[in-house]
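task queued by scheduler; priority normal; single chain, no ligands, no partner chains; default sampling; output format set to structure tokens
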Amino acid sequence: MIGPNGEPIAGARVMIVKGPQHEDVALLTDANGKFTLGVRGSGIYRLLVKTSGFPSMEQDVEVTGQTTISVRIKLGGS
């Protein structure tokens, strides 16, 4: 998680949601703006990010099999 100038965003709340039951997990980014989350099963998951000073954002991520994915999320700016 980075800000508009590339600075890491620590303490951002990240939720991951899959399916209509909204089975979700929430966690906070670390001092480097990073987070690690394990999910069960393949599919499309929605990341919801909230932190003070920035608008909330959502991003869909596709998970296929047992793999590690890196997602770069930039808050604010374009």
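post-processing summary
- The beta strands are 13-18, 23-28, 43-50, 57-63.
- Residues 1-78 form a domain with the Immunoglobulin-like fold (CATH 2.60.40.1120).
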